[in-house]
Amino acid sequence: MAMDSFQTTSHTHDGVTTVKLQGELDAQTAVVLEEEFEKLLEKKKYKVITNGQALQYIASAGLGVYMAYIERFREEGGDIKVTHLSERVQHVFDLLGFSKIIDVLESDEEAYQRFQSTS
Amino acid sequence: MTALQHHVKTTFSAKRSHCSDVRALLESSLVPLDPSPSKDLLHNIILATDELFTNTVKHAYREDASKTIGLEIQVTSSSIAVVIEHTGTPFDPSTYTPFDPNATLDQRRTGGMGVFIMEHLADQVAFERSKSGAHRAILHFDRT
User: Fold this and answer.
1) Is the overall model pTM greater than 0.90, yes or no?
2) pLDDT recorded at residue A4
3) Which of residues 27-56 of A touch B (CB under 8 A)?
4) Which of A74, A82, B88, B106 could be joined to B60 by an S-S link, Cβ 3.0–4.6 Å?
5) For residue A38, what is the domain's CATH number?
6) Which of B13, B16, B18, B20 to mutate to test the interface with A (most CBs of A within 10 A)?
7) Contact B97, B111 (CB under 8 A)
8) What is the mean pLDDT of residues B40-56?
9) Nearest residue of B to residue A24 by CA position?
10) How many domains does the structure of chain A reveal?
């Protein structure tokens, strides 16, 4: 399977960018998410919600991308929050302790409200 | 020794793009078993094997796609074992710094997450050398 087994689509509303994750995020496809985060940093879009409703699978390489980028967004006054994870993907976040260092939330609305309350 | 109920043996070139092929092979080999593994067990096997395969591509072969990785699935009535075989640099547990899931963000390192996942999801992880001199990593999962 090629790179198209994972893709992102994003839209920005009121200064908050929602990135929808779709497919399988692994050692091969993690670069797609890296490129998305790089683009957002270039465009100075620092408040990001990654919506995992269509994220079917995550390996540690995917979590490594969050780890590599989250501090850069926070340094600019933003954050990367995660929403709508399936039970299986959430389990991987929990196993590696990422739920303690990243906001993992039920809905985009909740994430959006957190951004509004801290801005 | 318990008789093998199902056995798959194949090879992949050492490319990250084969991670999804490895996952697909595990799913197509294990789902038809009777009894079929639970969804949680299947996910554990797939994720742990994916991490092992990725580590072999990255660390044992340093992304040299001309190299070959052997993959074997051994199923008995009581266990499922996945064997990854390579001839590159072996994993050295004595130089491995364990991943700490309780570390704060600034204390964290990305290395070690794959081994951590393997050790937590598999019932047993073994590293050995075959008679031919190849390095083998074996993930054992209980079926019960």
Assistant:
1) yes
2) 53
3) 27-28
4) B88
5) 3.30.750.24
6) B20
7) yes
8) 98
9) B20
10) 1
